[in-house]
């Protein structure tokens, strides 16, 4: 059977991906360049039995999706730079309280109100460290309209599987552009449903500190328990015990780290014999792939590492290539002033040169610019 | 015969954190009696709070309880109610939590008229952080951040709720326990957003430094200065000077948000 092909905007593809994944609640607040996600959800959710609400501010939007998830419904919010800043406290709440939610950040130029219509990749560190305290983060980075759909589905799956918030970190170009998309059939992509607890309600430990995962019971399902953003014991009630504080913080981070192989997705392009690597995400990775092909045409052994998961950082992938290949250098093009480059340098541990290619010019970094950097290593 | 609160308390989580003389324990008991009188299944009740002394209440009661971030209880409660409309959802917090940091959520909840209940525990001070002035600290009053006396004007919480469109607005006090229970019950039963301001006392943070020598004197102040709305109707402004009104201050019928939304969008169930 022929695939259902549409010409779709990236932000709409996020919305459609969310619906495919079973999302039935959206709480949002208008902000450029993410608003089309909200608009699409406002129209589409009621058609599939879901509810949409435009909240009074970004903070409330984040709070509402956490509340909806606690009510047992998969929930999405979407925002951009300033909104991501405002959502951070409640993102941290969802991390500590282990509430699955998905938040889309369509990156625009910052800081502050910045460049509202200008594409950027400058929230990479904000996605990781925006909320205070030590915490785990999962962030996925689509690079096409097709991936806006598929990575949103994956984001929901990861959120449900690992009981945590997941950020879809996209940018104003991928979000706003129109592109051909093949809509997956129902059942074609895996959709993970939230597991339900099977123990007796009186035995339910919603945050069992001795287990990696405990199913999250929905409020109203007969499991009465307490959720608090204070550090808490296995039963969910506050504790001031520094030993438990340490144990739970490490538990939350470790359970993401030790599932690296399941969470971290990377496209490796022409890396088998590569001597020069390009490390890029999102819209920049599209230029990077082009540059790698041009380099190959010119006889340069170039390859691309394109993370579709930027957090946790794909360090095992990078480390493996650096151990296997004799790499002369890594080019890191990014639409910011060097947020990913520092991470790549950390993982490279001096084994090769790492050179950033930064731009705040609001246009995609051109393949020719990346190619020029590649040439410097040969 | 004394009332049996045990059915609703998480006994293992007591004693509570509130100071000796704090009125919140009294209001907690009124809340339990109000819910018990409705005979609601405990599984169908969710209590959502923000941050502060009052917001620690949910931890002590055996319902679905959600202690959220500062000021955000109503926003969490809104998402929860939309996800599961069968839940009876109470959002509650103190005066600072609800009308300062949470003020935006408060007014917009009133405007929307979603069927949730909001209780504001007003003790005129930020108690947990150590007696800083709140939007309801009376002019001239001492707080650690108004050591020369409160210079700002303050909110009238019920006027704020009425102005923002809440369809049930009432005031009661910790002292008037029977009235408090009755008002809470009415608020729970009201279809739409209902707001109850509950006048409370913080002897440690507020009373001690504002000429209330004992916790009891703060409760007596409530007794002496609260005027029931029915009685107030026959009193002159001069007679009402320095007093405050308790009772149902505003009650209107307006379409409830969720029903309106579901009908407007033709929600496919």
From TrEMBL, chain A:
Protein name as catalogued: 2-oxoglutarate synthase subunit alpha
Gene3D superfamilies for the chain: 3.40.50.920, 3.40.50.970
UniProt entry tagged with the keyword Zinc: no
Keywords: Oxidoreductase
Species lineage: Bacteria, Pseudomonadati, Deferribacterota, Deferribacteres, Deferribacterales
Organism: Calditerrivibrio nitroreducens
Gene Ontology molecular function, alphabetical: 2-oxoglutarate synthase activity
Annotated InterPro entries: 2-oxoacid_oxidoreductase, PFOR_II, Pyrv_Fd/Flavodoxin_OxRdtase_N, THDP-binding, Transketo_C/PFOR_II
Domain Pyruvate:ferredoxin oxidoreductase core: 274-351
EC id: 1.2.7.3
Enzyme class: oxidoreductase
Pfam families according to UniProt: PFOR_II, POR_N
Keyword presence, RNA-binding: no
Top-level taxon of the source organism: Bacteria
Domain Pyruvate flavodoxin/ferredoxin oxidoreductase pyrimidine binding: 16-241
TrEMBL record, chain B:
Keywords carried by this UniProt record: Oxidoreductase
Gene3D superfamilies attached to this UniProt entry: 3.40.50.970
Coiled-coil ranges per UniProt: none
MF annotations from Gene Ontology: oxidoreductase activity, acting on the aldehyde or oxo group of donors, iron-sulfur protein as acceptor; thiamine pyrophosphate binding
UniProt domain Thiamine pyrophosphate enzyme TPP-binding: residue ranges: 51-198
Record InterPro entries: 2-oxoacid:Fd_oxidoreductase, THDP-binding, TPP_enzyme_TPP-bd
GO BP, sorted A to Z: cellular respiration; small molecule metabolic process
Protein name: 2-oxoacid:ferredoxin oxidoreductase subunit beta
Species, as recorded: Calditerrivibrio nitroreducens
